[in-house]
């Protein structure tokens, strides 16, 4: 993708059989590049996308598949209103940094317009994603703590 290019995208519904291989490939490449020590089960990842609920959209540019968005709606017992979740967003690396992510996040607000809040999570070391969400005015709300109990080796 050329520099300083503002890309305007379209959306279509996700089709598991047709689209999952590309999404898995992007995800694996993302982990290998940015989180090489992260354990990953491709079958579980693909099965989650297949069976868990939500609206799943393919992002298109000039008819080409350049990203994936998955949003969902939940009821939280501590909140009266419905909560929207961004379950997954991924832009093809060749199209990252062109404003596509921002456009997709605004589209997710349309998909989730009946919700009072949108929540999402990302790895604390995913600096690109953390910058991205801060730019979109997402604020830290809950923290996940983790303690290691055993080592596989
Ligand atoms: C995170 C992601 C969705 C952002 O999408 P994108 O289309 O590249 O983002 P945009 O071009 O719309 O950038 C919007 C803002 O995000 C931030 N950002 C984007 N890329 C960045 C980078 N490489 N470094 C730092 N900040 C970055 C900037 O604040 C940017 O605004 P600016 O261009 O005015 O500086 C994309 O990088 C991606 O798919 N990453 C891999 C998967 C992932 O990490 N998903 C999210 C976590 S689960």
What characteristics describe this protein?
153 residues; alpha+beta; Aminopeptidase; five-stranded mixed beta sheet; 4 helices; 5 strands; binds coenzyme A
Q: Would you write up a description of this structure?
A:
The protein has one domain (10-135): Gcn5-related N-acetyltransferase (GNAT) (Aminopeptidase, 3-Layer(aba) Sandwich). It contains four helices and five strands, in the order βααβββαβα. It has helices spanning 16-34, 42-51, 100-111, 127-135, and strands spanning 10-13, 55-61, 64-75, 82-91, 117-119. A five-stranded mixed beta sheet has the order 1-2-3-4-5, sandwiched between helices. Helix 3 links the parallel strand 4 (82-91) and strand 5 (117-119). The radius of gyration is 16 Å and the shape is globular.
What hetero molecules are in the model? coenzyme A
User: What amount of the residues lies in strands?
Assistant: 15-25%
Number of strands: 5
Low-confidence stretches: none
CATH uppermost class: Alpha Beta
As for the number of domains, it is 1
Number of helices: 4
CATH topology: Aminopeptidase
Query: Largest sheet, order of strands side by side?
Result: 1-2-3-4-5
> Can you tell me the overall shape?
globular
First-residue to last-residue Cα separation: 42 Å
CATH superfamily: Gcn5-related N-acetyltransferase (GNAT)
Structural class by SSE content: alpha+beta
Q: How many whole angstroms does the radius of gyration measure?
A: 16 Å
Write the layout of secondary structure elements.
Elements: E1 10-13, H1 16-34, H2 42-51, E2 55-61, E3 64-75, E4 82-91, H3 100-111, E5 117-119, H4 127-135
Parallel strand pairs: 4-5
Antiparallel strand pairs: 1-2, 2-3, 3-4
Helix pairs in contact: 1-2
This protein binds coenzyme A.
